[in-house]
Amino acid sequence: MKKGWLVLCSAFLIMLSACGSTPAAKGQSGSAEKIEELEVHFIDVGQGDATLVKCGGQAMLIDAGENDKGVLVQNYLRKQGVKALDYLIVTHPDSDHCGGADVIITKYDIGTVIMPNYSKDTASYRDVVRALDYKHYQVTEPKVGDYYRLGDAGFTIIAPNKDDYGDEANNYSVGILLEHGDKKFVFTGDAEEEAEKDMIDSGMDLSADVLKAGHHGSRTASTDDFVAMVHPEYAVISCGEDNEYGHPHAATLNTFRGLGIKVFRTDEQGSLIALSDGSTITWNASPSDTWKAGEPVGTGSGKKAEQGMKEITYILNTKTKKFHRLSCDSLPTENRNDSTQSREEIIAQGYAPCGRCNP
Ligand SMILES: [Zn+2]
Ligand SMILES: [Zn+2]
To answer: How far is ligand 1, taken at its centre, from the CA of residue 231, in Å?
Structure first.
């Protein structure tokens, strides 16, 4: 009798204590302290990149689109209530990433400006440097492994892993792993195959829920090994509608599709917003299901003129009908034509890739 009462009593106590502490094992409502929501805005800047990250009253901008997109990005930030930036990352000096940064640097107070130690002698890049001088801002060089806080989130530098990638501006891109609770995002700017390989070889844990596809979905990035290592649930491609480079390339889309990765695209869906509570990510749109690769635009297109100054893509030898990377050590001195066209367009005109630089 007495024993039975004890058993009953302790059973009651166990019930009580079970009620008092919320079941930690059961997902989101777990006992872990609630963290501030993370917002990641992949801003539609046409052909280029600009990503706003907000958490707990802090904000970071990764790239600012082309020269003519600075004001668009500024307006986007204003609508989001961003008054100052804790961080600005300019992944690399190409104009589709750094172009609008001069406007942002001039208009906003910025805590830390992170840029790779690689410069380009272009008007876009000179404007960025001029704006930094005007604001007396020092540039912080990205060091792989360095960690920065952003509200209840934080990010680690994962690239560049080398000081010297020759003239391959894309490979100097600053890469970061953004973490928020259990959720992770990887951003790699325009890093291509060589830089992706260096990230893999660094031995860091690159697994993430969201991969911002490198180089606008170009086949020169998102290599099988890299995508397999990140193994994201979602990939986001930032590129312009009907862009002349044919981004995203079919090879990249096939890689994602083959691994069951859901794809979002700014060219089809406009600005994309991911919200994380630390255990779940929700989006402002459903993934794209077109799997439609871009097509390089022909030379006669009026779009080209409208986009203004273009960057040199390859060096042609009009006599030998070979084309070279800008870094090739056997560039022609005569019969040279500095092309701004895509690889596909150049090949379509009967040019063959140089055997030395394998463009
Ligand atoms: Zn780019
Ligand atoms: Zn680039």
So the answer is: 22
Structural domains for the chain? 38-283 (3.60.15.10), 312-353 (no CATH)
> What region, left, alpha or beta, does residue 192 occupy, with left being phi > 0 and alpha being psi -120 to 50 degrees?
beta
Whether the Cβ atoms of residue 211 and residue 259 lie closer than 8 Å to each other? no
Closest ligand to the CA of 191:
2
- How far apart CA 123 and CA 129 sit, in angstroms, is 10
pLDDT digit string (tens) for 200-219? Answer: 999 999 999 999 999 999 99
Least confident piece of the model among 65-79, 101-115, 311-325: 311-325
Q: Residue 288 gets which letter from DSSP? A: B
What would the 3-class secondary structure string for 146-179 be?
Answer: CEEEECCEEEEEEECCCCCCCCCHHHHCCEEEEE
What is the C-alpha to C-alpha distance for residues 323 and 282, in angstroms, rounded to an integer? 45
How confident is the model over 320-332, as pLDDT tens digits? 999 998 778 888 8
The CA 97 to ligand 1 mean position distance, Å, reads 6
Q: HSE-up of 87 (CA within 13 Å, CB side)?
A: 30
- CA of 298 from ligand 1 middle (Å) equals 20
**Distance from the alpha carbon of residue 215 to the mean position of ligand 2, in angstroms:** 7
Q: Note whether 209 and 179 are within 8 A (CB).
A: no
Cα 94 to ligand 1 centroid, rounded to whole Å: 6
CA 67 to ligand 1 center in whole angstroms: 13
The 10 Å Cβ neighbour count of residue 258 is 10
Answer whether 0.85 is exceeded by the pTM.
no
